[in-house]
Amino acid sequence: MAKGGFGGMGGFGGMNMNNLMKQAQKMQKQMEQAQQDLEVKEFEVTSGGGAVKVVITGKKVIKAIEINPDVVDPDDVEMLQDLVMTAVNEAIRQADDAANTAMGGITGGLGNGLF
Description:
The chain is of the alpha+beta class. The protein is 53% helix and 16% strand. It has helices spanning 9-12, 15-40, 77-107, and strands at residues 42-47, 52-57, 62-67. The chain has a three-stranded antiparallel beta sheet. A hairpin with a 4-residue loop joins strand 2 (52-57) and strand 3. The longest helix has 31 residues, at 77-107.
């Protein structure tokens, strides 16, 4: 019973395990490439009809914030803060969506046939 107790377990470790390892290595390379692509990709978002513009990378590093001088009102700083916050949050959301889409395309079939 000790040698063949799992009936065919030895067969699982052969060709199927090699294919699994190859698929995992391929997936890892694809993920690394997708991460590199995201690092250089930029997302540009505006709020307030273009009053505030934010440029962010796929790694969520803010590259630029531009504020139209016409919206700078010393008596209404809260509006400007809200416009900046809205643009930054939308830029982060777009970067996250791009990352999820890129990684989902790679790992989407992970549960199909591997387990």
